[in-house]
Amino acid sequence: MSLNPYESPDTVGKPPPLKPRGLRSTLLSLLAVVGILAILVALLLPAVRVAREPARRSQCSNNLKQIGLALHMYRDEHGSLPPAYTVDADGKPLHSWRTLILPYLEHQTLYDKIDLSKPWDDPVNKAAFEAQIVPAYHCPSLDIPRQLTTYLAVVAPGGCFRPTETRAFEEITDDRGLTLMVVEVDAEHAVPWMSPSDANEELILSLGEAARPPHSSGGQAACVDGSVRSLPQSLKAETRRALISIDGGDDAAAKKAAD
Question: What is the pLDDT of residues 122-138, one digit of tens each?
Answer without folding.
Answer: 999 999 998 778 999 99
